[in-house]
Amino acid sequence: MAEDNSSKAVWFLTGAAIGAAVALLYAPASGEVTRRRISRHAEEGTDVLTEKGKEMVDRGRELYEQGRKMADDAADLFERGRKMVEG
Fold first, then answer.
1. What is the pLDDT of residues 14-29, one digit of tens each?
2. Containing structural domain, residue 61
3. How many domains does the chain have?
């Protein structure tokens, strides 16, 4: 579920950045000013996407560690059960 929300957030931010760039292109400003604005907004978008990417990587690491701990616990339980059966 979190992955689905993250994906939606990334697409929303991408759409917002594209919309902002198109709006700036049609804005009544000089080319130099418009290019600066586009550059600034692209940089801000890159920063946001980079941060979201780092958050997703961190969350992936957390999930990996949780899964690994669960697998280790399951292996321990299996081993204890095997020893009980063997006597």
1. 888 888 778 777 777 6
2. 2-86
3. 1
